[in-house]
Amino acid sequence: MTGSHIPGGGVDPRHAGTEQYFSGAHPAPPTRAEERARSESLGEMFAQFAEKLSLLMRQEVALAKAEATDSARKAGKGAGMLAGAALAAFFVLLFLSTALMWALGSLMPLGWAAFIVALLWAAGAAVLAVLGKKELDRIKGLPQTRQTIQEIPETLNPTKETP
Description:
With 163 residues, the protein is mostly helical. It has 5 helices and no strands. The chain has helices at 18-23, 32-39, 42-105, 110-137, 143-156. α3 (42-105) runs antiparallel to α4. The radius of gyration is 40 Å and the shape is elongated.
């Protein structure tokens, strides 16, 4: 059955001509990709592909730069705030040390009280220095990067098989 029939015979005028597409008399219009395949050479298609890929890469690099700039700005702001906090903490420790020195000074001569506070700070510094050195000794650099860089010459050598 082709077309839309209406009672009393005939074809519905809203669907006139559509039965030709459904009956196979006329092929479907070509898609954009099919039209390009007929009209463009393979070289032109590769050129457009390379151009679009290049544009995509430039856009990705621009996005990465924008994100890095924003992250660096935020990191700088955070680092500045941490530096301010470190300075404030230094003054807190300085005044607490002075208060401890004066408190001990009420029990002994002030010179000995200052010496005891200084010894406490020296002990703390020694402990932190030993722990810090242990942490630095555990650093092995960039072992995975070193290994992959050493494998590059073997990979580029055409006479050797890669595993």
